[in-house]
TrEMBL record:
General (non sugar-specific) component of the phosphoenolpyruvate-dependent sugar phosphotransferase system (sugar PTS). This major carbohydrate active-transport system catalyzes the phosphorylation of incoming sugar substrates concomitantly with their translocation across the cell membrane. Enzyme I transfers the phosphoryl group from phosphoenolpyruvate (PEP) to the phosphoryl carrier protein (HPr). Mg(2+) binds at residues 183, 207. It is an enzyme of class 2 (transferase). This is Phosphoenolpyruvate-protein phosphotransferase. The chain holds residues 245 to 567 of 567 of the full protein. The active site is at 254 (proton donor). GO terms for cellular component: cytoplasm.
């Protein structure tokens, strides 16, 4: 089984009728880069930078961050690296910063909300990223974007930081893509508008599911509601992809759903362009992509989207995969 998958390591992720997608890995830092490459990852679809902040005694400096981003970009040897800007708050805390007391931290002051409020922290990270951009193929994405205004504001700060560095005589790549995570239902619904401004989307299903179903992703009691295969989630994914494609933008997914074998054929059929997952899931996903036609995947997706319940969707995929 393992050996059978290993031969797919350097192959393209392409269906038997010629539809190509990209299979990438999620990483928390440089230590994970080798695993992505060894498992045939075509890029990094999510670099969770919060670990850099959580593993530090104080806010990491621009220089510390620059070194960390440079190392990952160089390690990926010119393959695309999507770096997510700081996603802290919710359940993720820092020893050196007092978060405000809130009733619902997951609905509160976190991620891009904090970054747009404390712009010095945000600017330091963006400076480090811009400086590192010349060492590989960098894409930057903002987490937890809820409104078009937030995206525009974050993008404006990025542009300002970039111009500031250039004025200082520092080299910055001129093809950094700037995109956003779609993990709040409001942004999935408005995807066609966001797509005028963002270079790409990456769907964060871990949060998208919890916010859509109003079910905490950590809660055991309501875990029955945490349903990646609920048709409502599939429809939000579809809206996101259609909204992006209408403006010629690409869409990835970096939530756990992207690597779930039962989800891969549906997501492929919905037109997802990039799947980012744990390194160890990549080769199996490639095997799946190579063994189906895009036409069949599209039919399967259309069938799933029309179902009433998650169980019905799962039965539909199971019978498809059994063939
Ligand atoms: C997500 O929400 O799907 C995601 C990838 O981000 P995280 O799991 O870090 O919240
Ligand atoms: Mg998230």
């Amino acid at each position: 089984e393992k050996e059978e998958l290993k031969v797919l390591k350097n192959e393209a992720s392409i269906t038997s009728d010629g539809h190509q997608v990209e299979l990438a890995g999620n990483i928390g830092g440089y230590a994970d880069v080798e695993g992505v490459l060894n498992n045939g990852g075509e890029g990094v679809g999510l670099f969770r930078t919060e670990f850099l902040y959580m593993g530090s005694k104080d806010w990491p400096t621009e220089e510390e961050q620059f070194q960390a981003y440079k190392q990952v970009l160089e390690g990926m040897q010119g393959k695309k690296v999507v770096v997510r800007t700081l996603d802290i708050g919710g359940d993720k805390h820092l020893d050196y910063y007092d978060f405000p007391e809130e009733m619902n931290p997951f609905l509160g002051y976190r991620a891009i909300r904090l970054c747009l409020d404390q712009t010095d922290i945000f600017r330091t990270q963006l400076r480090a990223l811009c400086r590192a951009s010349v060492y590989g193929k960098l894409c930057i994405m903002f987490p937890m974007i809820a409104t078009v205004q937030e995206f525009r504001d974050a993008k404006a700060i990025f542009e300002d930081v970039k111009a500031e560095l250039i004025a200082e005589g520092v080299a910055v790549s001129d093809d950094i893509q700037v995109g956003m995570m779609v993990e709040i239902p409001a942004s999935a619904v408005l995807a066609d508008q966001f797509a005028k401004y963002a270079d790409f989307f990456s769907i964060g299903t871990n949060d998208l599911i919890q916010y859509s179903m109003a079910a905490d992703r950590m809660s055991q009691k309501v875990s029955y509601l945490y349903q990646p295969f609920n048709p409502s989630i599939l429809r939000l994914v579809k809206m996101t992809i259609e909204g992006a494609h209408a403006h010629g933008k690409w869409v990835g997914m970096c939530g756990a759903m992207a690597g779930e074998p039962k989800a891969v054929p549906i997501l492929l059929g919905l037109g997802l362009d990039e799947f980012s997952m744990s390194a160890t899931q990549i080769l199996n996903a490639r095997k799946q992509v190579k063994s189906i036609t895009f036409e069949d995947a599209q039919k399967l997706a259309a069938e799933c989207i029309a179902k009433d319940t998650a169980d019905e969707v799962l039965e539909t995929v199971a019978s498809y995969m059994g063939k």
